[in-house]
Design a protein that fits this description.
It is an enzyme of class 2 (transferase). It is found in: Cytoplasm. This is Ornithine carbamoyltransferase. Keywords: Cytoplasm, Transferase. By secondary structure, this protein is an alpha/beta fold. It contains 12 helices and 9 strands. α1 packs across α5, α2 packs across α12 and α5 crosses α12. The protein starts with 13 loop residues before the first helix and ends with a helix. The mean pLDDT is 97. Bound molecules: phosphoric acid mono(formamide)ester (CP) and norvaline. Norvaline binds next to α6.
Length: 305
């Protein structure tokens, strides 16, 4: 089987996503029933973190153990990655000893260089440009709650970076529309997002207008990891991009609220929204694990079962 990587959402086809969502549901069912399922026995996942993480680490680590495999956890601080060993050399060495690699890093170019020199599949656990594992879990969560996402409207309120770029790629592939509202200066760059046409998204200056009629409203932190020096400037620029009860009222009555987490109540979202009845953020976080178990199974074994 040829090596496949998951470096951005556009790396897989709509048919492959349909498969992954079905597998994620089946694997989740086994987990809830305490059924042992060890298709990745004797396989090892290396997880490389150059940025902090709670969900990504726990979901990959617990998920790999549940599939019968094991994990190695590396950070910049405790490996030669932080001491300028070339990424190409690291890729060659690490991929001779493990079956799968997950990387959370800064520039997308870095993960691409790693993948180019890797003998095993590489998964993007977040870069400045993309967060494909998160959107895999988010779309799976939408489907669980509301059925197919095809033809639906997702309102994006906030920064035009990794999460927004990945939502755009998903909309392009899976046939839904993103209503994008970002503060001036923080817009999505269509070229970075890797989107050829504007058919799958619309831009709104007013976040309330972006939410009007939406089936899902979602947002993210004002200051992403790696941009901390811009914190003060961003607090001012993003002040009106806070998802509140009025925005949720502008959306459809059955609209869901999602946030990849970690969240900052009173900044990008009000507490009554994230802790309110339309919020599915805890299911969304849990689904990282089920969706990524399906992803790891697919990358290592193809379409099994
Ligand atoms: N959503 C997400 O990726 O969370 P962590 O930064 O905790 O991994
Ligand atoms: N956009 C955020 C997502 C964190 C999961 C960041 O890059 O820090």
């Amino acid at each position: 089987m040829a090596i496949r990587h998951f470096l951005q959402f556009s790396d897989f086809s709509a048919d492959e996503y349909a498969w992954l969502f079905e597998r994620a549901a089946a694997i989740k069912k086994k987990f809830k029933a305490y059924e042992k399922y060890h298709p990745l026995a004797d396989r090892t996942l290396a997880m490389i973190f150059e940025k902090a993480s709670t969900r990504t680490r726990v979901s990959f680590e617990a998920g790999m153990y549940q599939l019968g495999g094991s994990v190695v956890h590396l950070t910049t601080g405790d490996s030669q990655l932080g001491r300028a060993e070339p990424i190409e050399d690291s890729a060659k060495v690490i991929s001779r000893m493990v079956d799968l690699v997950m990387i959370r890093t800064f520039g997308q170019d870095k993960i691409e260089r790693f993948a180019e020199h890797s003998r095993v599949p590489v998964i993007n656990g977040l870069t400045n440009e993309f967060h494909p594992c998160q959107i895999l879990a988010d779309v799976f969560t939408y489907i669980e709650h509301r059925g197919s996402i095809k033809g639906k409207v997702v309102a994006w309120v906030g920064d035009g970076n990794n999460m927004a770029n990945t939502w755009l790629q998903a909309a392009d592939l899976l046939g839904f529309t993103v209503h994008l509202s970002t503060p001036s200066g923080y817009e999505v760059d269509q070229a970075v997002a890797g989107i050829r046409s504007r058919d799958s998204y619309k831009v709104f200056n007013d976040p309330m207008e972006a939410c009007r009629g939406a089936d899902l409203v979602t947002t993210d932190v004002w200051t992403s990891m790696g941009y901390e020096a811009e914190n003060e400037e961003r607090r001012k620029a993003f002040a009106d991009w806070c998802v509140d009860a009025d925005m949720m009222r502008a959306a459809r009555p059955d609209a869901l609220f999602m946030h990849c987490l970690p969240a900052h109540r009173g900044e990008e979202v009000e507490a009554d929204v994230i802790d309110g009845p339309q919020s599915v953020v805890w299911d969304e976080a849990e689904n990282r694990m089920h969706a990524q178990k399906a992803l790891m199974e697919f990358l290592l074994l193809g379409k099994v079962a």
